[in-house]
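Ticket #4471: structure output looks truncated?

Reporter: J.K.
Steps to reproduce: submitted the chain below (238 residues) through the standard prediction queue, then opened the result file.
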Amino acid sequence: MKARVIVKGLALILSLALLGYLFESSGLGNSVNESWIDARVRGHGIDGALLFLLMGGLFTAIGLPRQIIAFLGGYAFSVGLGTVLGTLAAVLGCMLSFAYARLFGKGLLRARLGERAGRFDRFIHEHPFAMTVLVRLLPVGNNLLTNLAAGISSIRPRFFFAGTLLGYLPQTLVFALVGSGAHIAPALKLGLAIGLFLISGALGAYLYRHFRHGQSLDEKIDAALEEPDMGEHESTTS
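Returned output as attached by the reporter:
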C-alpha cells in the first residue's frame, strides 16, 4: 500500500481516540453524552440499540464514514456489542443506498456511475460473494459510491449484503475498540487497534492484487494499492 493510505488510516484512528479521550475527561464529553449518547442510547437497552441502528443506518446511507458509526458503537456499548451493532448499522446503510440505486436511481446514476458499475460487474462476476468481501476489506475507496454502483450493477442483493457484512467486520472491530471504555491501558488499546487496522488493510491489499485476475475495480484504488511507494500518494478508508 502507498504510504499516504496508511498515514490517513492511522490519522483517523488517532483523531477518534482523541475524541474518545475528550468524551471521557472534559465538559465536551458530558454535553455530548447528555445530548444524545447517554440520553438516547447508552443504558437504554433494546430501545437505545434500535435507535443506534436506525440512525447509524441512515447516516451511512447518505455517506457518513462507517468508521465513525463503529467508534460510536464502541463508545455507547461494549467492544463486542459495539462491533455487532456498528456492523449491522453500516450494512443497513448499505442496503438503503443499494435499494435506492436499484429501484429509483438507475436512470439518474447510470450517466455518472455506469463505467464504475460495469467495472464492479466484471470484478465480481465469477465469485460475487468472495469478491464483495475482498472489496470491503480494502482500506481505500468510497463506501457510498460502491453501494450505488452495486445497485445499478447485476449483482444479486444476497451476495452483496452477505459479503458486505463479513467484509465490514475487521474495521468495525478496530474502531469500536478505539471508541470503547474497555478496561485496557489506553496505549495498549490504541496499539492493538492500529495493529488490527494494518493487518486487515494489508490483507485486503494482498487479496486484491493476487485475486482480481486482471480486472480493475477503480484506477485510483489500483494506484493506491501498488507496492509501497513513498513518492506517490492516494486517499484512504471507506
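Triage note (M.O.): checked the attachment and the full C-alpha cell line is present. The radius of gyration is 18 Å.
Status: closed, working as intended.
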